[in-house]
Specification:
single chain; 320 residues; mainly beta; Immunoglobulin-like; 9-stranded mixed β-sheet; 2% helix; disordered N terminus; disordered C terminus
Length: 320
């Protein structure tokens, strides 16, 4: 009942901590119950078919009153903008949510206290690729007031990423799939990168804008930086330019580091509109789907100047 209630009541949601309310204005400021969990990301390896994997989360209450908490699983994926999208458990083909059992599933935490929650993951016998899920811990709603002294119901929710991988190493694999311009008025360059492997990875990179003479006139860091990508997902990486870029034709040289043996590289010709000088908000990804650039630029893969050793996808610390 708590889980269903919270889904209907939630109006503000972020990946790791969220506030659930009954009637919360968008501008209201509230105090979130101090709920914590460790670790916030786990990776378990099925050393043999049908393995049962077990460990624990430590859930903490940093407040001065008892807190009743329930745990449950959810699916998730990464949108093209690089943001997290939540899904019903078991709906994603790569979900491990149905494999996870929490003991105890609901519990009370004393003030300034903690509770160890045991989790068991029962893996299938034919595991060949990475599977993933979120484990959420959510407090029971309690009465509170916002900055306008309005009565509200407030709860805290915190999520932990769970990855289950087979015993054989999953090498990072990815490729650049296109360059496009986001629709006006943004007219931002979008560089699309796809995770073509069987495990999650993190991608970051740079782009250089060269004029007709071949001179580098601007450089950009691709945003979101170090974005986490699940298998089969694509993300539009947006350059955060170091200087203004005048309208005109450019050759864009792109390099993306995704943890693979080589860097992903390519070059595309693009007719750019005016790009203003950078501001603190420059480079923020837009959720609007991109449209093809005027000349439909193609991206030609180029090997990295420095090959890197193949390594399995390691567990990583989530970044906001």
């Amino acid at each position: 009942m708590l889980q269903k209630f919270m889904k209907k009541a939630a109006t503000i949601i972020s990946l790791f901590t969220s506030i659930a309310t009954i009637c919360l204005p968008a501008s209201a400021q509230v105090s979130v119950p101090p709920l914590g969990v460790s670790p916030i990301e786990v990776q378990q390896t099925a050393v043999r078919p049908g393995s049962r994997l077990t460990d624990q989360f430590i859930v903490t209450n940093g407040g001065d009153v008892p807190m009743f908490v329930s745990g449950y699983t959810s699916d998730w994926t990464v949108a093209k903008s690089g943001t997290i999208q939540f899904q019903e458990p078991g709906t994603n083909p790569q979900s491990c949510a149905p494999w996870i059992q929490l003991v105890p599933p609901s519990f009370s935490i004393p003030p300034k206290g903690q509770v160890a929650v045991r989790y068991t993951i029962t893996t299938p016998t034919d595991l060949t690729a990475e599977h993933h899920a979120l484990v959420f811990f959510e407090s029971r709603p309690v009465p509170g007031k916002d900055s306008n002294n309005m009565n509200i119901m407030v709860a805290a929710r915190i999520g932990c990423k769970v990855f289950v991988v087979p015993s054989q190493p999953l090498l990072p694999q990815g490729k650049l799939t296109g360059v496009s311009l986001l629709p006006a008025p943004d007219n931002k360059l979008a560089i699309t990168f796809e995770n073509t492997g069987l495990g999650h990875l993190r991608a970051s990179g740079t782009v250089e804008a060269r004029d007709a003479t071949g001179q580098v006139v601007a450089k950009g860091e691709l945003m979101p930086h170090n974005v986490q990508m699940l298998p089969g997902t694509s993300v539009d990486l947006i350059p955060k330019w170091d200087r203004a870029l005048a309208a005109g034709p450019y050759s864009m040289k792109v390099i993306v580091d995704y943890g693979g043996k080589t860097l992903a590289g390519g070059e595309a010709k693009v007719e750019m509109p005016d790009v203003p000088a950078p501001t603190p908000e420059a480079g923020k990804a837009d959720a609007t789907p991109p449209k093809p650039a005027t000349e439909s630029p193609s991206v030609e893969p180029q090997p990295a100047t420095k090959p890197k050793a193949d390594q399995p996808t390691p567990p990583t610390t989530p970044q906001a």
